[in-house]
Amino acid sequence: MESLQVLVKAGIYILMAAGSLAAIGAVFFPNLFYAGLSLAGVLICVAGIYLSAGADFLAMVQILIYVGAVMTLIIYAIMLTNIEEIKVSHLGIKQILLSILAVSGFAVLTASAILSIDWRPLSGQNRLEVHELGAALMSRYIFPFEVLGILLFAVLIGAIVIARKDKV
Amino acid sequence: MDQLFVNLKNMALHLIGVFAPDWLVSLSSILISVGAMTFLGIFIMMYLTLMERKVIGRMQNRIGPNRVGKWGLLQPVADAIKMLTKEDIVPEPADRLLHFLAPVMIVIPALLIFAVIPFGRNMTALDLNVGLLYFFAMSSTTTMVIFMAGWGSRNKYASLGGMRSVAQMISYEVPMVLSVVPVLLSVGSLSTGKIVEAQADLWFVLTPWGFFACVIFFLCGVAECNRSPFDLPEAESEIVAGFHTEFSGMKFALFYMAEFMNAFSIAALTATLFLGGWQGPLLPSWLWFILKTYSLLFVMMWFRGTLPRLRADQMMGLAWKFLLPLALVNILAAGLHLYLGGPAGFASALIILLGSFMGLSKVNRSYVPEKREYVLAD
Amino acid sequence: MLFGMGILRGLGVTLKNFFASYYKKPEEGGLFTVEYPEKRLPVKERFRNFPFLVYDTTPENMRCVACDICAKECPPKCIYIVRDNDEAGRPLKKPAIFDIDFTVCMNCGICEEVCPFDAIYMDHEFEIADANRLDALLYNLPDLLKPNDYFQKIRPNDAAQVDARRLEAEEKKKAAVAAVKTQAAAKDIKPE
After folding, report:
1. Do chains C and B touch (3 or more CB pairs under 8 A)?
2. A and B: touch, per 3+ CB pairs < 8 A?
3. Contact across the interface for A33 and B140, Cβ inside 8 Å
């Protein structure tokens, strides 16, 4: 059985590497459509990592919402605004130093957060059933649920108002 | 007889287990399932094209293809050979990478859906805990790929067709997901295997909310596959084959394959969710499943042979103004039926649903101008 | 049901047609496909394809006298006629060469209309396709000759009319010959 586990581990590492490569591509591709597709690739790889960690509901919802809806929106935006390729403007030395400072600060923050977490798997029952999730949403987390509903409602109304034909 | 395929697979695994280590046996268990799914997908798609042509031909007072092999049974083979030997034309301004990737990436979700379909008792390839959500996730990735295909062709008709197709697909996803919610209310789990087992006493289609949910789900599924009467994005007289205009040969064959595999998945899932899956009295379970799925596919072909195409605004109107409110009312009715239980619940659900159906059809009546009076000059 | 009744009725029509296609005969509205080449529709009598030459009893009794009218009247000029000569070089009333190039012939039927000797008529044979582009469709005199029985079989009404006409002409000729003979006989008797 160890060989099977080795295969599974290798698959997870491949998934992580593909996700990182796609993220680099999403930032560095000059062709905007390729960058959007690389972003979709990143999101799918993240969903795969969720699956490998046992959060199957979250992985499916990630694909359904991020890749199905958000990426469609981003790609529509790319297509409708008719953007040409991204040209990298000339960078001065001050900008380079400032960006190195910002990125290193963020890296230190992230690294300290990652290293301070206890990464051993939780013992006992840690797989959440879907109906437990639903019950928790309705009882303990009801307030964020309703707030999200109102937020989506506001978004819908805003979209309808923007898309309406002006009264002649 | 009922567990024929399961026993075959177990025999094969025993054979392999004689001379191979443990991990190879589990790996080959996975590979046998995956290989069976893939082979099944392609085989189903090939003979679905033949079935469609013969069924539509009979409805139109003509015989379908019957020259290649008896009853035309080798026609899909001839079609495959034709598509393989066609020249693969990539237009010059088109994006080569997108043009190459789009047909590949549209078949992948179509094949992946086959993993959660319960083909019979104990015959689901992958009985996930979130099987139904997996299906919706896979069909939502198809929208992005269709847009990729339309945009990568650098063709006005293709991008227009791609946009229309994406708009149609995302509009019809909403009532589709909502119409499945009553089933979840009743069963309590997203796993397709458990949904089928919960229908052992009563198929969901025989309840008032189940009937409406089945019709809504089936109509939305037909729209998701871009089939008639919702095939505006890819109809020849409308937009010169829409998003797959610039794809020839094997690439077109892959798009065609993905469309039929999606159609099969929709029919299979409707049978699973509402018609009782593989439940049935006498015959083996996989035979019941095949019968139900293929009768739903016959209904899809029946729609194609009968109904004219919907216009774009009519299609969107149907989704947002009719199916969506009906699906929401359906959830309410299902809740009443399950909470009150017995005849009171049944009657109240039926009354609410029929009332809202009539109300919505009155609201959605298209505008018919009144008869004009002609006063002719002398 | 306000919203779907028309659709359901339409669906009913096609389903009825689907099942009817299996048992209804073509006259009642079932399938009327004729599966060529296993079955063939019979052609009508006046269907005209390429021409053929008629002979009465043996191929030597062909009706054609090589008058060259059909070759002159043919619009694409696909007929080529050379009159036969006997041993002494005097012309005979028979063609030695009668070629029709079927790749040129346009099946107009003018040669049939202008022939004064009821010799050339339009055939019904249309399955004469060949792979050879150059010589296969150049039909010579032996290929074109077909008996009068064949003509009666494929075009019974026209053949009956033609035969009646020829019979009447022969009767008249016989009567005229008989009249001349009796007159000659009467003249012979008189001077005696």
Report:
1. yes
2. yes
3. no
| Both structure tokens of B74 | 């080798």
Token pair for residue A34? 């390729």
C121-158 exposure pattern, b = at least 16 Cβ within 10 A, e = fewer: bbbbeeeeeeeeeeeebebebeebbbebeebbebbeeb
Q: C6: which chain B residues are within 8 Å (Cβ-Cβ)?
A: none
| Rounded CA separation A121/A116 (Å) | 15
Task: Chain C: list its partners (3+ Cβ pairs within 8 Å).
Answer: B
CA separation, residue B319 to residues A79, B290, B325, B334 (Å): 25, 29, 9, 21
Which chains have 3 or more CB–CB distances shorter than 8 Å to chain B?
A, C
Confidence class of residue B263 from pLDDT cuts 50, 70 and 90?
very high
Residue of chain A whose Cα is closest to the Cα of B24 = A4
| Chain centroid offset of residue C2 CA | 63
Q: How confident is the model at residue B165 (pLDDT cuts 50, 70, 90)?
A: confident
Q: What are phi and psi of B370, to 5 degrees?
A: -75, 160
pLDDT tens-digit series, residues A60-85: 999 999 998 899 888 888 877 766 66
| CB-based contact C14 B305, cutoff 8 Å | yes
Confidence check: pLDDT of A121 > 80 = no
Mutate to test the interface with B, among A38, A60, A79 (most CBs of B within 10 A): A60
Q: Which residue, among C7, C14, C32, would best test binding to B if mutated, counting the most B CBs under 10 Å from its CB?
A: C14
Q: What is the mean pLDDT of residues B177-193?
A: 90
Q: Tell me the domain boundaries of chain C.
A: 12-41, 51-174
Is the CB of B58 less than 8 angstroms away from the CB of C2? no
Instruction: Look at residue B377 in the predicted model and tell me its pLDDT.
Output: 87
What CATH code is assigned to C51-174? 3.30.70.3270
d(CA A155, CA A163) in angstroms, rounded, equals 12
Q: Which residues contact B226 (CB under 8 A, 6 or more apart)?
A: B165, B168, B169, B233, B234, B259
pTM for the complete prediction? 0.86
CB C11 to CB B362 under 8 A? Answer: no
User: What pLDDT is attached to residue C190?
Assistant: 64
Average pLDDT on A40-45 reads: 94
Of C3, C10, C33, which is closest to B306 when you measure between CB atoms?
C10
Residue by residue, DSSP assigns C91-113 as EEEEEEEEEEETTT-----HHHH
Nearest CA in chain A to B136: A64
Compute the average pLDDT of residues A85-96: 78
Mark yes or no for CB contact C21/B61 under 8 Å. Answer: yes
Contact partners, residue B220, CB within 8 Å, separation at least 6: B172, B173, B175, B176, B179, B319, B323
Q: What is the pLDDT of residue B236?
A: 60
Task: Using the predicted structure, report yes or no on whether residue A86 has a pLDDT greater than 70.
Answer: no
Chain B neighbors of C11, CB-CB under 8 A:
302-303, 306-307
Q: How many CB atoms lie within 10 A of CB A28?
A: 12
Contact B45, B257 (CB under 8 A): yes
**Distance set, CA B269 to CA A121, B261, C78, C97 (Å):** 36, 12, 68, 76
Whether C30 contacts chain B with CB within 8 A: yes
Confidence of residue B237 (pLDDT cuts 50, 70, 90): low
Say yes or no for a CB contact (<8 Å) between A64 and B137. yes
CB contact under 8 A, C3 and B59: no
pLDDT digits (tens, 9 = 90+) for B86-97: 988 888 888 888
Question: In chain C, which residues have pLDDT < 70?
Answer: 1-2, 190-192
- A–C touching, 3+ CB–CB pairs within 8 Å: no
Cα angle for residues A74, A77, A82 (degrees, 5° grid): 135
Residues in chain B: 378
Find out whether C141 and C100 touch, Cβ atoms under 8 Å.
no
